[in-house]
Automatic annotation (TrEMBL), chain A:
Segments of this protein annotated with the region Disordered: 64-127
Name of the protein in question: DNA polymerase II small subunit
Assembly, per entry: Heterodimer of a large subunit and a small subunit.
One Pfam family of this chain: DNA_pol_E_B
Gene behind the chain: polB
Keyword terms: DNA replication, DNA-binding, DNA-directed DNA polymerase, Exonuclease, Hydrolase, Multifunctional enzyme, Nuclease, Nucleotidyltransferase, Transferase
TrEMBL record, chain B:
Organism for this UniProt entry: Natronocalculus amylovorans
Region (Disordered): 277-319
Acidic residues biased stretches: 285-313
Alphabetical list of NCBIfam families matching this protein: polC, PRK04023.1
Family matches, as InterPro entries: PolC_DP2, PolC_DP2_cat_dom, PolC_DP2_central_dom, PolC_DP2_N
One of the record's GO molecular function terms: DNA binding
Record-annotated DNA polymerase II large subunit DP2 catalytic domain positions: 756-1050
Keywords recorded for this protein, A-Z: Coiled coil, DNA replication, DNA-binding, DNA-directed DNA polymerase, Exonuclease, Hydrolase, Multifunctional enzyme, Nuclease, Nucleotidyltransferase, Transferase
Role played: Possesses two activities: a DNA synthesis (polymerase) and an exonucleolytic activity that degrades single-stranded DNA in the 3'- to 5'-direction. Has a template-primer preference which is characteristic of a replicative DNA polymerase.
Family, similarity comment: Belongs to the archaeal DNA polymerase II family.
Ranges annotated as spanning the membrane: none
Protein name per its UniProtKB record: DNA polymerase II large subunit
Highest taxon in the source lineage: Archaea
Length: 532, 1177
């Protein structure tokens, strides 16, 4: 609960003869101890000042006391200890750390990569040699959308899915087409790869899975006593799996003995960067929402300017830059910025706070002003012009970004809702969003289930297939932070920069707001920083 | 009961007995599934309750209890009977509670609706976490039809039974309680609730509820938070439960409390907090849930009575707060007639016309025409107050609209014919006319009275109080009190010190003080030429005259007012146009009245007589759904309930099926799933109800598939195999020759195939035993051009409207017809001589629409031929013209109910509605706010209805006549009808009470309502009205909504009308149409596109996803999408154009722009875009 209203802050400043910027007032009102903060600000500003600016206030109330993320982190991730955390109560001492407002547009001399411990007394970040950087994009379908909404294009998309995913399974089973299987003698052994067409439980508590390939469908029965019956709970419609088993006596059904997902090989060894360099993986900024946490964002970008963040050279944003318009009924009443273009303008302003020497990659999300059906192409030219900051790369959702050898599959994450809804709680939940991501990796598809919550736009190929195993899988959307490793792939679901909305409150979601996961690209170790 | 009422019911029952006798004879032949008529006659409510529930002994006990106590109390008293097993035959505790709850719901719904059988699935006992048992009541969707009070009381009854049986209270787990909160929110969002409880309220109720409320999943949408709970079977919203909790418990808390207080065993102390509204209000600052705007609307209407609206520092008039709820979900093509309380909108006039009351609104027929025919008799409007919706009735004894024509003339139009003539020249509808609402509506809706317009019927009472002998004046042939000359008006106003006659009372409250002053100045310098006042034309003077509703003509620089004397006198000027006051003479109060926007106090200070407010209350409204008068066809239509699978093609043609050859070369032979029956005489097995060999009536035959044992149904009608205990149905796959059936039917009737177009059957039967109907019935239906409903009856749907007095002439019958029907006198007690005498309608008499009459003639002919040719019995109707229908009996029946009411035809109307006595509608549990229901011909129902045809699924027995009421007992009908006022005049005290926005209860004593005569000899008569209307059908015969073609035409007309109406903000209309119709449509279709199912064009097989084979896996045919680009973007261009043309918000335009981009992105090839004409050159 805020201890001070903006009005009383203004009054209090006015009593001392000062005027103040609106944002400065907000900052003060939100300070842990506003009267104290006001006192500190008044002490520190110069005599000539009439109008107290945000900078004045920030100079006193510092950002980013780094805290532990609330979750029990998986072993791979480490908590940052607050080595440089400053004490808000002693403003004078913090000056050195916080006077990092001036934008760093000029990358300084090429200091060596391993200069990590070198302390820049001015507090400015020191970027490394830009020539060491590398960044390439794959699977970007922006401008390549050729679908015109015809039946055959849908078929082509699903066939492409089947072909590419079944390839991954061919090494494990010897696929026979369903048409051929149905003609095999009863009792024979059979192996089959297919898209899940239907899953039903039978009266006896067994599972009947209908698999489909390009020749037809075939029913496969998983009996409840089999240990693989546990896997049936994980199945989503339209994902590709392989089964092995024995045909019934009339060859009408297959009794499944084993079931395989395309999966990430356990032997997968991720690539890493050749130097110590870091990437910040964020998403769901929601500029324009009344709940957008400008303050947390400022603290984040301030931190990026700090020496501590000098190795953070890449910023990957997994969608929902803005709150959007018309995303849900009567949204206009909850918007801070009603005009969609103004929202992007404002986002661009916030993006300007990010150090100019950082490489930025963005994909759209479901709140952004692009089509909702996936794959979502990157923003159109008008929006690109607005967000023309720091030469940010704007690509489609999903897309794969390879930075200094490390491939990052970026996907906004709408399908996570479905995975969480369909799978049992212990296998996927909002509180452990990364576990839901594991399933997508296992299925090698970012949004397998058709016809439910996910929307699909037919294209020449299925852009949603995870053809190559990424080193990092980065999503957002559910506003819950979660990370962990699945067969050595680092799965990261970033939190958000939007405080709890009324809707989230009504459905019992407590978002993780103001977090920035930071990945060491040389080790794939991860640190989560909190900016609240 | 008065002897004449006895005679009336006697006549009806005599005719009913004749029909019953004949129908029994037909049924006894054994050609139908049962050998008796399947619609039992219920003498009274108790009978209906017993019949619907099928629990013996209930009726007798109910009658006993009804003598001593109220129905609600009886429902609670019956709990004891069930627990002690004096009623019902239930051994288990669950069964006892189940019986008690169902009986309570049946009793509280007068044994009419299906809720007690369909709305409660079961009662079960479950375990609390502490090991104690609790009661779980499992509701289903149809509980909706019980209404909030019965829903709430069903919970109370269950709890009472629980405590009598010593079962513990339900202790909800935290996740279950939060689940209720989320689920009710979800249900409200998806389906909508009449009352949306705040989260805190729901949580509070769930925490305190001593029994668990559970239910069937009713929708596909699932909760996202509290899923997979152990004691909740589904993740979807449980509609029945949500209704009971929100519209039952939360909304009706005060009513339940009344009964909990009477019961020692039941304590619900928490209800008090709910009633006080202290739940969810403790921390208003955090509370910003979705329902908040709903709540504010609600509280507005609750509190508006106490609020003296304040406008800045100035005083202002007493006004009701504008309410905007009716504008929600505006639909394209259904126009707004007035924004909330907006000037120029409908002016509230109190009164009840003879075709009015019971959720209807009286509108002048000239208005109906001028608003481009969008309103017709029976069209529904959504209204600002007092209720939510009303059916429109034409009333021409109220003021018509005032319009400005293209030539500048401002005229009031009181003649529908004139309205039609000038309609094309109307530039602006300055005022849409009066709007008649009866006092009873305010009681029914418990809405504070709102200030009344000053009208003739009030003025005459003011005159009397002022000392005038009004009766003598009325008798004076030289005077027309309703329409006096200016001289008379001035004389009465000054001589009697009575407020000025309403005819000359202008709408001073609708002009500002500045306009008032400008008008006075303009008149001061005006001149009288040939008796016509001419004043300077300025924007201000013109607007002032228009808003005052002073008729005038306009020239380039002058406004000419023919009837100017009372305008001038009201302005405190002499007839020689001398003004003896200046602005300085006006008080501050007058100058700042309502912030200077209202000149009422100013005019009162200068006028030499008293002036009352002419139209203080404006009522906003918009069109709801159009009126209806149509035969009910299933889709596709069905003539015979005989299954033919896919063989009949899309048309389900039996003839086609009978010719289809199978692979053995046989024609018309199919494997059909139909009921197996056994002939008791010869033991033969057949699917037919009559044994083909010996002609005996057959009975269902049950044999266990697996064990081969013949089984018998148990008491509850279930059939279990004694060996394997699986449930057995008599419906089995059998080889049936449709050809033989079809040919046989034609032969036995002596009909040829050419006598009808097509005989349509059904794909399969949905009833439990799958008993097919004799095909002869279908042949005759098709021959006579009628089709069957799922239960074997032929139905005709009409919008319900009330009428309490009629003229034979307007019903296209003669006074002799009325005499034959037993009518003796007109409303004044005079003997019946002329066709235009006004006669009070009897309670079970109904007026058919022309379309209904025509359909009834077909049905009568069908029934007659069925009797003569199929049953070999004499014809019953022998109808030649529609006159022959007069006096015939019909069944009236409403959706969601299970009881038919017998009605008698007295005449016909050109309006597309079913006019009947309000008590007749109430007996079907309908009001007249745009509801529609059906009529069936009596003999058709008796002969052709069978429960055996009803679908074997939830809601299957809804809308089926499981029982009939032969006579209406006014105390056993929906009590909403009792709130209708039945007087000839409202007293002056009433009008004055409206000015202080009194509670309607305060004046209830002054005005007799239906309730006041209940249980007396007078309960069937004396339904007086305050306003007459020339004809119960005036104005357009069909709403323009139905006559206009495409949605675009309708919307253009809607927006065009919005521009014309002064009370309507066309930008807002455009905005709302886009927001509530186009955008949801576009978004929904785009969403549907990207997750659509597909379908085989050849065999109809549906696929959840596009098959990888591309072709149909079943037949190899062509598979295609079910949602195409065309249906997705059909509104895109229009929406963008409308947004542009009407200056919609940037927000709306941007949403459209983004959607358009999305559509392009999905439907256009990026690499192959033509950006302009240059690409083609």
């Amino acid at each position: 609960m805020p201890s001070e209203t903006p009005a009383s802050v203004v009054q209090s400043l006015a009593r001392h003869g000062y005027n103040a910027e609106r944002e400065a007032v907000t900052l003060l009102a939100r300070a842990p101890d506003p009267p104290e903060a006001i006192g500190a600000v008044l002490e520190n500003i110069s005599e000539e000042t009439l109008r107290i600016t945000v900078t004045d206030v920030r100079a006193v109330i510092d950002s980013a006391p780094i805290e532990d993320p609330p979750q029990e982190p998986p072993v791979e991730a480490q908590n940052t200890e607050s080595n440089q955390a400053t004490d808000a109560d002693s403003p004078v001492e913090t000056e050195g750390v916080t006077s990092k407002q001036p934008k760093r547009d000029d990358p300084t001399d090429s200091s060596a990569v391993d200069d990590a411990e070198e302390i820049d007394t001015s507090g400015n970040r020191r970027a490394s040699d830009i020539s060491l950087r590398s960044l390439s994009i794959a699977n970007d379908m922006t401008g390549q959308s050729t679908g015109t909404g015809e039946y055959k294009q849908f078929v082509r998309t699903f066939r492409d899915r089947y072909e590419r995913l079944s390839k991954l399974l061919r090494s494990r089973v010897n696929h026979r087409p369903t048409k051929a299987i149905s003609k095999m003698p009863g009792g024979s052994e059979a192996e089959l790869i297919g898209l899940v067409n239907d899953v039903r439980s039978t009266k006896g508590g067994h599972w009947l899975i209908e698999l489909e390939d390009t020749t037809g469908t075939f029913p496969c029965l998983v009996t409840k006593d089999k240990n693989i019956s546990e896997l049936v709970n994980e199945l989503l419609m339209d994902e590709c799996i392989a089964v092995q088993g024995r045909l019934s006596d009339d060859a009408g059904i297959m009794f499944v003995d084993s079931l395989h997902f395309p999966d990430v090989p356990r032997t997968h060894r991720p690539s890493t960067a050749d130097r110590h360099v870091q990437a910040a993986l964020i998403s769901d900024i929601h500029v324009g929402s009344q709940e957008f946490m400008a303050e947390a964002w400022h603290q984040f970008t301030d931190w990026l300017h700090s020496e501590e963040a000098q190795h953070v050279e890449y910023l990957l944003i997994a969608g929902d830059m803005v709150e959007g318009v018309g995303v849900y009924p009567n949204q206009d009443k909850e918007l801070d910025i009603i005009d969609i273009y103004d929202q992007y303008e404002m986002f661009a302003e916030y993006l300007k706070e990010v150090p100019g020497d950082m490489e930025i990659v963005m994909i759209p999300g479901n709140h952004d002003a692009v089509r909702l059906a996936e794959p979502q192409p990157g923003f159109d030219d008008r929006l690109r012009d607005i967000m023309d900051i720091h030469d940010a790369r704007i690509v489609s959702n999903p897309a794969t970004v390879t930075i200094e050898n490390v491939s990052v599959l970026m996907y906004h994450g709408v399908s996570l809702d479905e995975v969480i809804a369909e799978l049992p709680e212990e296998k996927a939940s909002y509180d452990e969003s990364h576990k839901a991501m594991y399933h997508l990796l296992k299925k090698r598809h970012v949004a397998p289930q058709y016809g439910g919550r996910n929307r699909l736009a037919p294209e020449t190929q299925d852009y949603l297939v995870i053809d190559n195993v990424p080193d990092i899988f980065h999503t957002g959307h559910v506003h819950k932070i979660g990370w962990g490793k699945y067969h050595n792939v680092l799965a990261v679901n970033s939190g958000c920069w939007q405080a709890q909305t009324d809707f989230q409150k009504s459905v019992n979601i407590n978002p993780d707001s103001g977090y920035a996961p930071i990945v060491d690209l040389d080790t794939l170790n991860m640190t989560v920083r909190k900016f609240v | 009961m008065r002897p004449e009422d006895e005679r009336y019911f006697g006549r009806i029952e005599d005719r009913l007995d004749e029909a019953l006798a004949l129908a029994s004879e037909a049924k006894a032949q054994g050609k139908d599934p049962e050998t008796e008529i399947e619609i039992p006659v219920a003498r009274d409510m108790a009978d209906r309750v017993e019949n619907i529930l099928g629990i013996d002994g209930v009726a007798e006990r109910v009658r006993e209890l009804e003598e001593q106590m109220s129905r609600e109390e009886a429902a609670l008293e019956l709990v004891n009977d069930f627990v002690e097993e004096t009623v019902g035959d239930y051994d288990s505790r669950e069964g006892k509670i189940d019986g008690a709850v169902r009986t309570a719901v049946a009793l509280l719904t007068e044994g009419v609706v299906a809720a007690p059988i369909e709305g409660i699935d079961r009662v079960e006992l479950l375990k609390n976490d502490d090991g104690t048992e609790f009661v779980n009541v499992y509701y289903a969707g149809p509980i909706r039809s019980a209404g909030g009070t019965a829903q709430a009381l069903s919970v109370l009854v269950a709890d009472y039974a629980r405590s009598l049986l010593g079962i513990a209270e339900y202790k909800g787990r935290d996740d279950e309680i939060e689940r209720y909160v989320e689920e009710i929110g979800l249900y409200d969002k998806e389906t909508g609730l009449q009352y949306s409880p705040k989260d805190k309220e729901t949580r509070f109720i769930a925490q305190n509820m001593p029994i668990m409320l559970d239910g069937e999943a009713t929708g596909d949408e699932e909760v996202s938070g509290y899923r997979d709970l152990e004691r909740v079977d589904t993740n979807s919203a449980r509609g029945g439960m949500c209704l009971v909790m929100a519209e039952g418990i939360a909304l009706k808390a005060p009513k339940i409390q009344r009964y909990t207080r009477q019961l020692d065993e039941v304590e619900w102390p928490w209800l008090q907090d709910l009633i006080d509204g202290t739940i969810g209000k403790e921390s208003g600052s955090e509370e910003t849930n979705d329902g908040s705007d709903v709540d504010s609307d609600e509280s507005e209407s609750e509190t508006e009575a106490d609020e003296e609206p304040e406008t800045g520092d100035s005083e202002g008039p007493v006004r009701a707060e504008p309410a905007t709820k009716f504008l929600r979900d505006l639909i394209a093509g259904r126009p707004v007639f007035g924004h909330p309380s907006e000037q120029g909108g409908f002016r509230l006039r109190y009164g009840r016309a003879r075709n009015h009351g019971f959720a209807t609104a009286g509108v002048h027929p000239a208005t109906m025409h001028l608003i481009d025919d969008f309103l017709a008799t029976g069209t529904q409007i959504k209204t600002e107050r007092p209720g939510k919706a009303a059916g429109v009735v034409p009333v021409d004894s109220i003021d018509g609209p005032t319009v400005r024509l293209a030539n500048g003339d401002v005229r009031r139009i009181d003649d529908p014919q004139e309205a039609l003539e000038i309609r094309n020249g109307v530039e602006k509808i300055i005022d849409i006319g009066e709007y008649l609402v009866n006092f009873g509506e305010f009681i029914e809706n418990n809405h504070a009275l709102v200030p009344a317009s000053y009208v003739y019927e009030w003025w005459t009472q003011d005159m009397e109080v002022a000392g005038a002998n009004v009766q003598a004046m009325l008798d004076d042939p030289r005077m027309d009190l309703d329409d006096p000359t200016p001289d008379e008006a001035i004389e009465w106003a000054t001589e009697y010190d009575c407020p000025l006659h309403p005819q000359y009372t202008y709408l001073w409250h609708d002009i500002s003080v500045d306009e008032f002053l400008a008008l006075a100045d303009a008149i001061d310098s005006g001149e009288i030429v040939d008796g016509i006042l001419a004043i300077e034309r300025t924007d201000m003077t013109q607007q002032a005259l228009e808003h005052l509703l002073v008729e005038h003509t306009a020239t380039a620089d002058a406004l000419r007012i023919p009837e100017w004397r009372l305008v001038v006198r009201s302005l405190g000027m002499t007839e020689s146009l001398r003004k003896s006051w200046t602005k300085a003479d006006l008080s501050d109060r007058a100058l700042t009245w309502d912030g200077g926007a209202n000149a009422m106090e100013a005019v009162r200070e200068v006028a030499p007589f008293e002036l009352r407010e002419r139209a203080p209350t404006r009522i906003g409204n918009r069109m709801g759904r159009p009126e209806k008068s149509e035969k009910r066809d299933l889709s596709p239509a069905v003539h015979t309930l005989f299954p033919i699978r896919e063989a009949g093609g899309n048309q389900r043609s039996v003839g086609q099926a009978s010719r289809q050859m199978d692979d053995k070369g046989r024609r018309g032979v199919f494997d059909l799933q139909v009921g197996m029956r056994e002939c008791p005489s010869c033991g033969d097995h057949t699917y037919k109800s009559q044994c083909p060999d010996c002609g005996d009536h057959t009975e269902p035959y049950y044999e266990c598939d697996d064990c081969g044992i013949e089984c018998e149904p148990d008491e509850s009608g279930r059939v279990l195999c004694p060996r394997c205990e699986s449930e057995i149905s008599s419906a089995v796959w059998q080889e049936v020759s449709v050809r033989a059936e079809y040919r046989g039917a034609l032969e036995s009737l002596g009909e040829r195939e050419a006598t009808f177009d097509i005989l349509k059957g059904v794909k399969g039967l949905t009833s439990a035993h799958k008993i097919p109907e004799p095909m002869e019935k279908g042949v005759l239906r098709s021959k006579h051009g009628v089709s069957s409903f799922k239960d074997g009856t032929v139905r005709y749907d009409m919008t319900d409207l009330p009428v309490t007095a009629v003229r034979p002439e307007e019903l296209d019958v003669t006074v002799d017809h009325f005499k034959e029907l037993g009518y003796e006198t007109d409303i004044n007690g005079d003997r019946l001589i002329h066709d235009d005498q006004l006669i009070e309608l009897k309670v079970q008499d109904i007026v058919l629409s022309d379309g209904a009459a025509e359909h009834m003639i077909r049905i009568a002919n069908f029934v007659d031929e069925l009797l003569t040719d199929y049953y070999d019995l004499p014809a019953f109707y022998e109808v030649n013209g529609r006159d022959d229908l007069v006096g015939e009996l019909v069944f009236g029946m409403a959706p969601h109910t299970s009881a038919a009411v017998v009605g008698r035809v007295v005449g016909f109307t050109a309006a597309a509605v079913g006019y009947a006595h309000p008590y007749f509608h109430a007996a079907k549990r309908r009001n007249c706010d745009g509801d529609e229901d059906c009529v069936m011909l009596l003999m058709d129902g008796l002969l052709n209805f069978s429960k055996c045809y009803l679908p074997d699924k939830r809601g299957g027995s809804m809308d089926a006549p499981l029982v009939m009421s032969s006579r209406i007992d006014p105390s056993e009908i929906d009590d909403e009808a009792h709130n209708m006022d039945i007087v000839r005049q409202y007293p002056r005290e009433f009008y004055e009470a409206t000015l202080r926005m009194a509670d309607p209860g305060e004046v209830e004593e002054l005005i007799q309502i239906g309730e006041d005569t209940l249980g007396t000899d007078e309960q069937y008569r004396g339904f007086d009205h305050t306003h007459d209307t020339t004809n119960i059908h005036m104005g357009p015969s069909l709403s323009a909504y139905k006559t206009l073609g495409s949605m675009m035409d309708k919307m253009d007309a809607q927006l065009e009308l919005a521009r014309k109406l002064r009370a309507v903000d066309e930008t807002d209309v455009a905005e709302r149409v886009i927001e509530y119709h186009f955008l949801p449509d576009l978004i929904g279709n785009l969403r549907a596109f990207s997750r659509q199912k597909t379908r085989c064009l050849d065999c109809g097989e549906k696929y959840r996803r596009m098959p990888l084979t591309e072709e149909c896996r079943e037949c190899g045919g062509r598979v295609n999408l079910t949602v195409h680009q065309g249906s997705v973007n059909k509104y895109m261009d229009t929406a963008i154009e409308v947004a542009d043309r009407f200056g919609c918000r940037e927000y709306t335009k941007q949403r459209l722009a983004i959607l358009e981009k999305s559509l392009e992105s999905v439907f256009e090839d990026d690499t192959n875009k033509q950006s302009g004409i240059a690409d083609f050159m």
